[in-house]
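Translate structure to sequence.
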């Protein structure tokens, strides 16, 4: 079986010319996921407090229904606010303010596929004496799946290692398991069975140098002139939702005695320099 993989060399995505062996034992595929030491610091530098979320569509009155179910990524159980560990937990409300997303950021989640990930803390909110205390989800990061499939394998955050080699395989990447201290060097990211288009793969590589890239997949071994190294296949990948940044338009300098009225710089597709007004009433 051939492997269609991508490596980074001088910040350029190129097809790797090494062989690979599928079905290897994945040392990261162990049940060691935990909320971790950063449980109250979801904006820290670790890879803890990542949760899958899904809307609660049960038909009953709020806050008992209509909130969000959450479960710890890479884990079989999740600690709920009552201290018990369940397959998934329930939050009656979600405070999105810490994400700093505007409409353009949230709209990217509407076009995403598969599951959603958040990096969040779980708080408690008292709904009053008649209702009681419920969990509140407090995300700082929101990640949208990019492929219309269920994920399979270990979830890791991937980044460029900055390592340069004169031979292959070379540890171009570094992977850090979500909700764990486990990490490994990677020589290749295998996209062959993911179903991702070349455009999607290119976007994923670009995001690795910006907001980041999270993938799920399984271990394989890469072989080449330099020996053996680790690779990870891709069954699903997630991109972090970010706000659109409009490029400021450049308006030509108005002629003497004229000025622009009605500047509009946002939204991006509605930018305009406005109407050129000339005459004795112009302040310029």
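Result:
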């Amino acid at each position: 079986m051939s492997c269609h993989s991508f490596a980074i060399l001088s910040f350029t995505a190129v097809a790797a010319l090494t062989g690979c062996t599928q079905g290897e034992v994945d040392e990261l595929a162990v049940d060691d996921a935990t909320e971790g030491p950063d449980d109250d610091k979801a904006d820290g530098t670790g890879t803890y407090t990542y949760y899958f979320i899904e809307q609660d569509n049960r038909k009953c009155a709020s806050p008992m229904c209509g909130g969000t179910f959450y479960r710890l990524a890479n884990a079989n159980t999740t600690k709920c606010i009552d201290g018990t560990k369940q397959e998934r937990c329930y939050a009656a409300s979600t405070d999105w303010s810490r994400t700093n997303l505007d409409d353009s950021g949230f709209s990217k989640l509407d076009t995403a596929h598969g599951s959603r990930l958040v990096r969040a803390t779980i708080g408690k909110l008292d709904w009053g004496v008649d209702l009681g205390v419920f969990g509140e989800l407090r995300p700082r990061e929101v990640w949208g799946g990019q492929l219309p499939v269920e994920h399979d394998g270990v979830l890791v955050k991937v980044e460029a290692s900055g390592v340069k080699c004169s031979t292959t395989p070379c540890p171009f990447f570094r992977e850090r398991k979500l909700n764990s201290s486990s990490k490994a060097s990677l020589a290749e990211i295998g996209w062959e069975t993911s179903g991702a288009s070349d455009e999607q793969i290119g976007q994923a590589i670009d995001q690795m140098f910006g907001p980041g890239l999270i993938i799920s997949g399984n271990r394989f071994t890469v072989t080449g002139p330099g020996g053996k190294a680790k690779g990870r296949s891709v069954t699903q990948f997630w991109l972090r939702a970010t706000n659109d940044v409009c490029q400021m338009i450049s308006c030509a300098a108005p002629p003497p005695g004229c000025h622009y009225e009605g500047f509009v710089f946002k939204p991006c597709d509605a930018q305009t320099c406005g109407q050129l007004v000339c005459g004795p009433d112009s302040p310029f």
